[in-house]
Amino acid sequence: MDFRLTQDQIDLREAIRDYLSGEHGPEVLRRLDAEGNRDAAIWDGLVGMGLTGLLVPETQGGLGMGLVEAALIAIELGRANVSEPLADTALVAAPLLDEAQQADVAAGTLKVALGHPINPWIADLDQAGLLYAGGIARPAPDAGQSVETVDPLRRLFAATPVAEDDRLLDRAALIAAAQLIGAAERMLELATDYAKTREQFGQQIGQFQAIKHHLATVAVKLEFARPVVLRAAFAAQNDHARTPIHVSHAKVAATDAAMLSAETAIQVHGAMGYTYEVDLHFWMKRCWALAGAWGDRAFHQRRIEAAVVDGGMTIGPDTTFESELHHG
Amino acid sequence: MDLNYTTEQQAFRAEVRDWMRANVPAQPLKTLEGREGYDQHVEWERKLASGNWGMVTWPEAYGGRGLDLIRWLIFEEEYWGAGAPLRANQNGIFLLGPTIMEYGTDEQKARFLTPMAKGELMWAQAWSEPNAGSDMAAIRTVAVRDGDHYVVTGQKTWSSRASFADWGFGLFRTEPDSKRHKGLSFILFDLNSPGVTRRPIRQLHGEPGFAELFFDEVRVPVANRIAGEGEGWNVAMATAGFERGLMLRSPARFQAMAKRLVELYRQHRDTASPQAREAVLQAWQDAEAYALNTYSVAATVMAGGHIGAEASLNKIFWSELDRAAHRAAMSLLGAGAELRSLADGSENSWLEGYIFSLSGPIYAGSNEIQRNIIAERLLGLPR
Ligand SMILES: Cc1cc2nc3c(=O)[nH]c(=O)nc-3n(C[C@H](O)[C@H](O)[C@H](O)COP(=O)(O)OP(=O)(O)OC[C@H]3O[C@@H](n4cnc5c(N)ncnc54)[C@H](O)[C@@H]3O)c2cc1C
Fold first, then answer.
1. Does residue A122 contact residue A159 with C-beta atoms inside 8 Å?
2. pLDDT tens readout for residues B184-193
3. CA-proximal residue: ligand 1, atom 32 (nearest)
4. Cα Rg, chain A, nearest whole Å
């Protein structure tokens, strides 16, 4: 039992964070928003960092890592608000594909879209070579016209309903939760930085206790959402029986933290927060999008209720982690 | 990251489980905040000590088992899972004990730690004064040096269980005319010393749990001072950190509560409001989240890390979780929530718990004070 990241995991995260903060700052988001929202150079950069091969076995040209690393990277993608279909392709679909497809994903030449009846729309279908749905990867159909969404950098396409796939749902909800954590972290930072610079009544607004308490409340929420997401990732990586419940918990906790962070951040920014001119809105809108994707809060709460209240899942102090004694 | 228990950890869990099954009192004890219940709880402390379970993380030399924090968490899970009573000596074992271990002399360690682990010396905490609550640096009670004694004069208040405890610890002004957090010393005193008067204060639930303490020229040996004269503030801050941090509110306690809450929800589901349903699910999730975070902090501390202002995040989280969960239980009980005993004749411990949960956001440094600490020390906002 050691609930710490390994040094390798920390190094990986730092490397990606450094790269993204250098190559994918807010000015990139503004450019993408103004000029059209996908840019091959950004994808190539992510491929160059090895991210498309993160979960692909080394024999297929990947890094052979697991879902814990995937969650860590997804947090970074959320922090940087990356919109390229990297999360869906590399962090969700890749391990579910065959060897040849995995090799193409690792090489960066294949993008994969995800279909599931829980989502009425499919993200980045026009970019995708494959549509993974109902446990099968097929050549992606014609995407048709995109539907407009609140998130200026997200691209959605109407799709015909496809078969259920719990494994896909759990993995995608986990990766969405991790991105929400990253977005929540970033918005807390944006708001904190703003509170240190904006002055009213002759002082920094961050000196006002009302502002301090708003931000501290977000910090508490986030602190207790992160380990929930990491446990879900660990459970999914090890195929634990409780994975669906841990993932649902992660999605609820991350959504709540991100929504609170967003609402607090706009409040702290005052009217500036209500404009297109500050960077905040990009993250806020991504939160609104991810909060509803892959099962909204109500869906995941119902899943938890079904297991914890009705399903007779053993709960209590000795059931925090899977262990043989639980059933004794 | 490896979230699997080792074989040794599993074996340890089984050992604790067996002992608890054989020894936890079949009937719940009376409340710790009244004389009769307090005595029952002290008896339980001694029983625990007889099994060598008084304080499992302490060194064996002081009656402990020298276990690491993960095994402490496992111990706590089995303890609360078995429905064992509250710890009557929490001030001693969770707050003063670690303080003495860090700042005490060898003589002080030998004198106080073992009796604490054995449940032979029960402790009260005496920081607060009528005009020094959140503003602890406003403490006025003085301890004037007279040879190898201090002479203590003044008043403390809100001292939990000081009505019944044997000894107290607190901060006193040892430098006359010193200001704020300078000139304070951390001193232990015998509550039965001549010149100490205890006036019990009835708490919200009617029990005489707190006491006000009056000191009238009480003579306390200088040997009872922890760390140097005038260094009390820093020592007290460390103690306060223990209080907010890992030990005092182990997650297992809230997980056991959440489990009972889910059972209550099952019984009252037909009449439960959507808000109560939501609150029950939230309470279970928050108790889990609190446990996960604690495992993560424990692993960091075991690897040499330190908890600083992060303890304030903890304190807010458990106190608000506790209050929200008990509020949900009151809602599920509906009109019956006000009754002291439930339909089956058992005590309405949800009512008792709800009342107590209201104090969580106040004591151990109010949540407003914790939010200031988080904003200034963790987020770096200006003072
Ligand atoms: C059940 C219980 C057990 C206790 N046990 C002990 C004990 O064993 N030993 C002991 O010494 N004390 C004990 N206390 C006292 C406790 O530590 C104090 O109540 C606490 O520190 C708050 O002080 P106060 O009650 O004087 O409130 P005040 O300081 O008067 O505060 C009143 C309100 O003002 C707010 N406030 C005060 N200052 C600020 C600020 N700077 N910014 C924002 N808001 C502020 C507070 O948050 C609170 O909401 C206990 C209290 C309770 C309820």
1. yes
2. 999 999 999 9
3. B134
4. 20
